[in-house]
Amino acid sequence: MISKSSIVDNIKTIFYALVIAIVIRSLLIQPFYIPSSSMEPNLLVGDRLFVTKYSYGYSRHSFPFSPNIFIGRFLFSTPEIGDVVVFKTPADNRTDYIKRLIGLPGDEIQFIDGDLYINNTQILKTSIKSIENVFCGNSKIETNFFKEKLPNGKTYEAVYRSDYSFQNSDKFLVPENHYFFLGDNRDCSKDSRFLSEVGYVHEDNLVGKAQFLFFSSDSKKGSLFKFWDWKNIIRFNRFFKKIN
């Protein structure tokens, strides 16, 4: 027969475990799942990654359900352009997006003839390979692969449709205390270029910095519940890969 004191002890253990898990998730590190192809080729659908919550300090969005327990951000550390960041979309302050930080407060961002400009300076774009397929939703699109180099020296891969569907834009002037984000899959990403859907992201909406992958699987090739398919589903080569 289970004693009353044993039940109480078990409840206490579960309670303490939940508190510890919430503290770790809110203040230190949190896992995220990649559901879309907007960051290909660097992040694939089915990637699981860890995001450090302390990288940019803390706001209400650092905590589960974004409670209104305080206003602003404390222990704030300014992000760097090129960081891959998880943030809450300004549209609903609830949905998590992951994109690459391209513009800091006061920066001017513009696309001219398919090239990215920051503060009227063209970003160096070196061709890696041409006409390679990447996913855009459930479809595949033909893209050209480039290595881009930002003004601070940060480099990463970005892909553009071979027909450059997004070629020119107005200038985006990043407001004070806001940031401008782009997906690495440039023609298949809802990001700061779309002001009514994402737009400029306030510093309070930053959740954390993406650091490394810890697991990755391709659901298009089968179910994880079928262990005999794991060799085709699980991307072992992506385990513990640092996010650039």
Topology:
Elements: H1 4-28, E1 29-33, E2 47-52, E3 84-88, E4 96-103, E5 108-112, E6 115-118, E7 121-122, E8 124-136, E9 139-149, E10 155-161, E11 172-173, E12 178-182, E13 201-202, E14 206-216, H2 230-233
Antiparallel strand pairs: 1-2, 2-14, 3-4, 3-14, 4-12, 5-6, 5-11, 6-7, 8-9, 9-10, 12-13
CA(first)-CA(last) distance: 56 Å
Regarding CATH, which class? Mainly Beta
Q: What is the CATH architecture descriptor? A: Ribbon
Strand order of the largest sheet: 1-2-14-3-4-12-13
Strand content: 35-45%
Radius of gyration: 20 Å
Tally the helices: 2
Bin the helical content. Answer: 10-25%
Q: Under CATH, the topology is which?
A: Umud Fragment, subunit A
Q: Label the overall shape.
A: globular
Unreliable spans: none
Major β-sheet annotation:
7 strands, antiparallel
Mean of pLDDT: 91
| SS class | mainly beta
Total strand count, please? 14
| The CATH H-level homologous superfamily | Umud Fragment, subunit A
Q: Sketch the topology as an H/E string, one letter per element.
A: HEEEEEEEEEEEEEEH
Q: How many domain units?
A: 1
What is the multimeric organization of the chains shown? single chain
Structure description:
This protein is mostly beta strands. The chain has a single domain, classed as Umud Fragment, subunit A. The protein has helices at 4-28, 230-233; strands spanning 29-33, 47-52, 84-88, 96-103, 108-112, 115-118, 121-122, 124-136, 139-149, 155-161, 172-173, 178-182, 201-202, 206-216. The strands form 3 sheets. The protein has a 7-stranded antiparallel sheet. A 4-stranded antiparallel sheet has the order 7-6-5-11, with no helix packed on it. Strand 8 and strand 9 form a beta hairpin. The longest helix has 25 residues, at 4-28. The chain is globular. The model has no long low-confidence stretch (mean pLDDT 91).
